[in-house]
Q: What sequence folds into this?
């Protein structure tokens, strides 16, 4: 049957150890930073040499010292910030004696244009990588060094750039912090969505298991009640029963009652939304008013014809094919087989409007095989609100009995659900022969829910 179309959201991987999360952004960041570093090294070195009356060699050395810290900031932003600030401070101190010889109004000092550009870039990369507190601390240290150079040490003829430079640095830190906060928020959102999806899947699984447990509780409780009643009546069917026979039958009856009580204690809570509410339970099964008693018998494969008739009444063309010698199976197998067919046909109604379906039931010597195949839908299925868990429930039922279930698209279109249920379900602690064959291994189960 055709499953609903869903969009699979790929997790967004972000690494706070790198400037940006995706590969192409990292490559763009590296390319842009190297380009800025090259411009600061060459053009900035020439400007430093001209403004501060330094030699060409000294200007290039100063420019390259600033440019190299930009490249280092891509991997070591904290160390790069410290080296860049130190280099800018040393350049300002070296240039200070030459400020007397410059004509008024004097060059930009203590922050030249290439130094402002280099330090702002370093602070931006730093804010992208470290906590906001650390980025603000770095900005404060830069402002303090600027104050010491311009406000305390000072110079002769220069155009003060301390206030403007600190303002530019503050904007760089603000932008970097905002981008980092946005990246962290997206990472946390993805993690929360993943956690929510995992919790939703786990809750769906538990709800489906609870529903199956309630149904099996009804089946097992009925048979345990029958055992108790038969053990109680048996001595009256034998003329002059011996004391040993009476004791054995009484022991059987008592064990059945004890098992029934424990079963009720463990699984009975699943029958009510208010497990703490008082509940009355009759171990013999004769009290019609007991809340644990089912209001209707659990369905079996004998009711498949009625199920198919109901599905036909809903507008789906269904054919039923039963092969092999019909025989009663254990209640758990009967119930699970019926529910699997019922859920598979319901999925056809929901997800394949206008399609036809064929139900095949094959009674084998040691198992029963089920196969529900539907043709492609004639028109698109209407949108469904929320995700169901039909396939999940079917897989749980088959796995619980030691069987298997496959759901896969048919080659000619449509969908196929194939189940194999052993006639004698696997019981923990008992020897069990392997299943002689399983559904088609070339069509693995689709991961998801119907």
A:
């Amino acid at each position: 049957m055709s499953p609903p179309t869903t969009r699979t959201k790929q997790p967004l991987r972000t690494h706070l150890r790198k400037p940006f999360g995706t590969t192409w952004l990292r490559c763009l960041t590296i390319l842009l930073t190297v380009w800025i570093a090259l411009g600061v090294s060459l053009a900035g070195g020439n400007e430093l040499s001209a403004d501060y009356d330094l030699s060409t060699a000294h200007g290039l050395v100063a420019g390259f010292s600033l440019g190299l810290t930009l490249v280092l900031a891509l991997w070591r932003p904290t160390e790069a910030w410290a080296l860049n600030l130190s280099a800018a401070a040393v350049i300002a101190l070296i240039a200070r004696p030459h400020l007397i010889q410059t004509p008024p109004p004097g060059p930009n000092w203590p922050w030249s244009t290439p130094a402002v550009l280099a330090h702002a870039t370093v602070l931006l990369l730093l804010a992208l990588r470290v906590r906001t507190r650390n980025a603000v601390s770095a900005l404060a240290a830069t402002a303090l060094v600027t104050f010491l150079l311009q406000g305390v040490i000072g110079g002769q003829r220069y155009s003060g750039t301390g206030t403007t430079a600190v303002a530019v640095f503050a904007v760089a830190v603000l932008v970097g912090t905002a981008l980092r906060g946005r990246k962290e928020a997206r990472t946390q959102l993805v993690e929360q969505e993943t956690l929510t999806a995992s919790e939703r899947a786990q809750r769906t699984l538990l709800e489906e298991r609870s529903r199956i447990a309630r149904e099996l509780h009804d089946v097992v409780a009925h048979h345990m009640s029958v055992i108790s009643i038969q053990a109680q009546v048996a001595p009256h069917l034998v003329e002059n029963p011996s004391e040993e026979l009476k004791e054995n039958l009484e022991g059987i009856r008592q064990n059945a009652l004890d098992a029934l009580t424990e079963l009720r204690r463990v699984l009975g809570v699943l029958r009510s939304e208010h497990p703490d509410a008082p509940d009355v339970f009759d171990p013999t099964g004769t009290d019609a008013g007991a809340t644990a008693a089912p209001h209707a018998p659990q369905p079996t494969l004998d009711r498949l014809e009625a199920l198919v008739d109901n599905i036909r009444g809903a507008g789906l063309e269904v054919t039923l094919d039963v092969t092999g010698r019909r025989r009663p199976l254990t209640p758990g197998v009967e119930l699970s087989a019926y529910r699997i067919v019922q859920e598979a046909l319901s999925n056809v109604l929901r997800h394949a409007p206008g399609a036809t379906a064929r139900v095949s039931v094959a009674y084998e010597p040691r198992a029963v095989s089920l196969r529900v195949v539907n043709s492609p839908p004639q028109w698109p299925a209407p949108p469904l609100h929320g995700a169901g868990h039909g396939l999940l429930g079917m897989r749980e039922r088959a796995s619980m009995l030691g069987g298997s279930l496959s759901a896969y698209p048919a080659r000619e279109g449509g969908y196929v659900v194939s189940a194999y249920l052993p006639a004698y379900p696997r019981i923990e602690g008992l020897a069990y022969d392997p299943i002689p064959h399983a559904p088609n291994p070339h069509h693995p189960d689709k991961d998801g829910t119907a």
User: Anything to note?
Assistant: The beta strands are 108-109, 159-160, 317-323, 356-363, 367-374, 404-409, 415-422. The longest strand covers residues 356-363. The longest helix spans residues 162-233. DSSP finds ten helices and seven strands in the chain.
